[in-house]
Amino acid sequence: MLKKKLIGPFRQLLTMDKLQIKGALPDDVLEIIEDAGIVIEGDFIERIDKFQVLFDEYQGIEIEKISGSYVALPGFIDPHTHICWAGNRAIDYAMRLAGKSYIEIAKAGGGIWDTVIKTRAASEQELSNITVYRANQLLKDGITTIEVKSGYGLTVDDELKMLRAISAADKITEADLFSTCLAAHICPKDFWGSSTDYLAMMAEQLLPKVKEEGLANRVDIFIEDSAFSPEEALDYLMEARKMGFEIVVHADQFTTGGSKIATEADAISADHLEASEENEIKLLASKNTIPVALPGASIGLADPFTPARRLLDAGASLAIGSDWNPGSAPMGDLLVQAAILSMQQKLNTAETLAAITCRAAAALDLKDRGVLKEGNLADIIAFRLEDYREILYNQGRVKPEMVIKKGIKISSRDKNIMT
């Protein structure tokens, strides 16, 4: 029989429950339980109620009583990262500061290709170790579920190496890692044929092995002038869908066209969308594909932000990912980025927190997290604050004092939190 325990009281607990997945959200829809407690059994939440009610009812179970004023939420979810890579691109960043464009840096030998060379040279063990290190940094900041893409191998063997490294890292870190095959990141410079030939090779030689080994359930592609055309992408994605993969798209980062393919392919999410205009916004609002804003890339490239406010007002959903990668988004701080996007796009507290909890879970097609409720995973974070509105007010400077993953306390910045 699994052991039960009661944790609390939390000054405020935001369940993020009963929120619609699409459209704008007023702040008054947030369900807030004051002086709350959570009963956990094994990995899952058994019950949430007032702490005193649970204390009186659950006699004899383990009690982890919290001392001080804390605000609890579901563990944050980062639906878009590239944290499996070797090397760094500090030279690229210095060139960008000096006025060079993304395309100019790539032509000078930097960009994605620079990371491909370094990642190919790394061993599977080295890639696994660095992925664990980065995942643990995110976990400490309250991100309990992390999507991780391949895409810096760009050969069958090197993409498999990356995906195996991510799988190995998932077995070590306490965070949950969900891998995505992004072999269609760019057409590699050393490939012998056309970009169409490259995609055909990956569909024929790589994806069946990925499926056979269970290395990823999701396939992504970068649709852009410097990567793959919308027509090439649609054919590739349809082949992946036939194999049983879920579809994700890097869409509308610099030019439009990607979001249309994402909706035609019935993608779970369309990520980036910095270049999306009225037609793309209306299209995304009419479908179930979830827009994922990546403010880290906008900051890193000094590019426009995803039109998040217009997407929500049109009736679309919105999730937020960090896009943590070595080139365009090296910050890797989801909460800082969400706070910046919320101010820049005038997203209220409910919309911003939903974008990194329940709506981020939907962008990964996960139904057992992102909301604190009976039967969901006991992924819980707690900030040492008086009021939940202070989370975004502090613009990411204040991090969770307590992180609980599947019912187990992973970290506590405040050693006196439990009594």
In short:
The protein is α/β, with parallel strands linked by helices and 419 residues long. It is built from 16 helices and 16 strands.
Polypeptide structure, described:
With 419 residues, the chain is α/β, with parallel strands linked by helices. The protein folds into 2 domains: 4-74 and 371-412, Urease, subunit C, domain 1 (Roll), CATH 2.30.40; 77-363, Alpha-Beta Barrel (TIM Barrel). 37% of the residues lie in helices and 21% in strands. The protein is built from 16 helices and 16 strands. Strands 1, 2, 3, 4, 5, 14, 15 and 16 form an 8-stranded mixed sheet that branches. Strands 6-7-8-9-10-11-12-13 form an 8-stranded parallel sheet. Strand 15 (402-405) and strand 16 form a beta hairpin. The two termini are 26 Å apart. Residues 414-419 have low confidence and may be disordered.
Q: Level of helix content?
A: 25-40%
Oligomer: single chain
Describe the global form.
globular
The share of residues in extended strands comes to: 15-25%
How many structural domains are formed by the residues?
2
Give unreliable regions as ranges.
Answer: 414-419
